[in-house]
Specification:
Layout: E1 4-8, H1 17-29, E2 32-40, H2 54-82, E3 86-93, H3 95-106, E4 111-115, H4 122-135, E5 140-143, E6 156-159, H5 164-172, H6 174-179, E7 183-189, H7 200-208, E8 213-219, H8 225-236, E9 240-244, E10 247-250, E11 253-256, H9 258-266, E12 271-274
Parallel strand pairs: 1-2, 1-4, 2-3, 4-5, 6-7, 6-9, 7-8, 9-12
Antiparallel strand pairs: 5-12, 10-11
Length: about 280
């Protein structure tokens, strides 16, 4: 059951594509949604504290506060129009602190929704994605900044490689898979083979949940796995993707794996990730 959704709101631009998509998810599942808006602390370059005018710091603080309030206003208007149960929270945080705080909040929700990192604030957006993915213990839907429509589940791609994270993602995505009109279990073939890699067992598991899935085996060739997946998503007309979020820990700091990073950089459809 999917009954409690949290979304990280963005104060940039006239629209918040991640918030709009999250609201459509909540409306589809008759879920409650909470919008989190961060008032970011002013960014002061190292070693320049004494050289930055106080009024400049306060101006940045005021602009950040205005952006956070505008994000809340847009969200309030959108959920009212959608007629769904909702609430908001506005929190003070640094860019790095916001990622940890959002991940901690997301632990008590069924699903977290965040936006794809954009160039103008890529580092902070990436921190929020990584925090939600690796620290929340919950599935995360990352919404591409080109997304212009709400949740549609005409064709869902479930990426499968027999791994723990892929299994976790498919399990977490079951509410979406059960509503999908078509589900493809996509396997990118490499040298490594195993009984679980065939996808037949996963297909049988999904069938027991009433989900009819087709197995699609793709040759990796000379390109990256992420490129194979994105190419298939485009060719098949997919509108939602499910995959494990890969990474490794270096001194307690997670670093995104190559496939995960590649998908997040070039994604064209919303992606549900679990770690």
């Amino acid at each position: 059951m999917l009954k409690d959704v949290v979304v990280n709101l963005s104060g940039r631009g006239p629209r918040d594509f991640a918030a709009e998509y999250a609201i459509s998810i909540a409306a589809t599942f008759a879920a409650h949604i909470t919008g989190i808006s961060f008032v970011y602390e002013p960014v002061i370059p190292d070693g320049t504290l004494g050289g930055v005018p106080v009024d400049l710091i306060e101006l940045q603080r005021a602009e950040n506060s205005k952006a956070a309030n505008e994000a809340l206003s847009r969200f309030d208007a959108a959920v009212k129009k959608a007629g769904i149960s909702a609430e908001t929270r506005m929190l003070d945080a640094t860019f790095g602190g916001a990622a940890t705080r959002f991940a901690q909040i997301a632990r008590r929700f069924d699903l977290a929704v965040v936006s794809q990192a954009q160039r103008e604030r890529g580092a902070s957006d990436e921190l929020v994605i990584e925090g939600a993915l690796f620290e929340s213990g919950r599935p995360v839907v990352v919404v591409p900044y080109i997304q212009r429509r709400g949740l549609t589940l005409e064709r869902v791609l479930a990426c499968w490689d027999g791994s723990r994270t892929a299994a976790r993602a498919i399990g977490d995505a079951m509410p979406f898979l059960e509503r999908a009109k078509a589900v493809d279990i996509v396997i990118v073939a490499e040298e490594r083979k195993s009984e679980e890699m065939t996808g037949a067992n996963m297909s049988a598991h999904l069938a027991r949940h009433g989900v009819t899935a087709s197995i699609k085996r793709m040759a990796k060739g000379d390109i990256g796995i992420e490129d194979v997946l994105l190419s298939y998503a485009a060719d098949s007309g997919a509108d939602f993707m499910v995959m494990g979020g890969y990474g490794h820990s270096r001194l307690r700091e997670f670093i995104l794996g190559g496939v995960t990073r590649g998908i997040l950089a070039s994604m064209t459809v919303p992606v549900l990730m679990s770690h």
